[in-house]
Amino acid sequence: MNRALQTISTRLFTRPVLPSSLGILPNAGINFIPCAWIRQHKLTDQQMRLRYKKLHWHKFYNDKWVQRRGGGWDEKMTPENQSFMQEVVYETYTNKESPLKDGPWKHGEYTTNPETIRTGVLGLKLGTLPQWDKKGRKFHVTLVQIIDNHVVNYTPPEMINFRTLFTTRPLRRDLHGKVGMLVVGALSSDPRKFTRAYNGLFEQAGIPPKRKLTRFFVTPNSVIKPGTPLYATHFRCGDYVDVQARSIDFGFQGVMRRYGFRGGPSDEYGATKFHRKRGTVGSGRKHKILPGTRMPGLMGNKLVMMKGLKVWRINTKYNVLYLMGPAVPGPNHGYMRIQDSSLYERKQKLTKDNHPPFPTYYPQDGKILDEELFSDDIYHFDQPTLTLDDVQIAPLTTRRTTAKTAQKKK
């Protein structure tokens, strides 16, 4: 009996097969058995397994649900066969009908109340560069390239179980049941390197398999049709974004490298084998190492989010974003998630008439953009540094000498 109760408590979401006349309480398709009803009818564990089955929730389109790597690559193929396989792969994806042949989905309207959440993009970190503003002040920016981004799939809010949902970016509880999930992939790859199950995730979008997948939570009014490409012009110059990436993995490091400790004294003061040590950790009344004590350990390789980074510049030809700061998390050539800033001060500046391209930038809208887009307060290198339009130059009438200058001082 206790085992049956334990089974009920662990399976919160169950679907009943028993008839409704037995006292089952309906609750929007998700039901449970009252404890008093269990004590009265004395169901065994075997009867519970026969009468109940677990709900099969929609599995998210992510690479951890299917086996990604494995399979069909054969190194013993002749060059003629390899070229033939390349032609087959090319023809397979060029002749495939795209879901965009009927045009994109109907665009929604940007609203501030209720809140509008757009999708993000996947970027590749390239490095840092110095830039100057119009006042001559120098600052550094990080270059992030948006390579071959496409929308893979969309899951409506009704198909998502927010109780057991794992997200790398925390989702506010008030958004549960109000946002859908948009899967975005970056960097198309050879389908022969992946399994058939993984390649099947991209059939609906009509695109080749992607090397990297991630998911963004969006409101229903900012949904994008699967197969739609995403560009760097998804953002505007002067906007603020949040960047999330996995920091550089430094391995096992000591306290001097991990936390910046000073270390022990030098040999001149009689220190022996104490140059880079931490010091005492167990002194005090409790005679134990307190939780949270900074000790040597693994450094880096953690998800880090930086909020409120300004977009200073955009290159539309190569899809490159110039983000504020040289300390954007992640190594060079590492992937990062870029999304609209969630800071309250930044969101308040967006209005119904002043907002980024919604739901994203569509080249077929007819708006032609320049190759280089700049923010208002950044210096353009193709502009002169000083203009003399309002300056009048007058010749000197008299020439002062040192003697006259000395007489005036007296």
UniProtKB/TrEMBL annotation:
Gene3D superfamilies named in the record: Translation factors
MF (Gene Ontology): structural constituent of ribosome
GO CC terms in record: mitochondrial large ribosomal subunit
Biological process, per Gene Ontology: translation
Alphabetical keyword list: Ribonucleoprotein, Ribosomal protein
Pfam family, one: Ribosomal_L3
SUPFAM superfamilies: Translation proteins (SSF50447)
Membrane-crossing residue ranges in chain numbering: none
InterPro entries given in the database record: Ribosomal_uL3, Ribosomal_uL3_bac/org-type, Transl_B-barrel_sf
Domain of life, source organism: Eukaryota
Similarity section: Belongs to the universal ribosomal protein uL3 family.
Name of the protein this chain belongs to: Large ribosomal subunit protein uL3m
Organism in which the protein naturally occurs: Adineta steineri
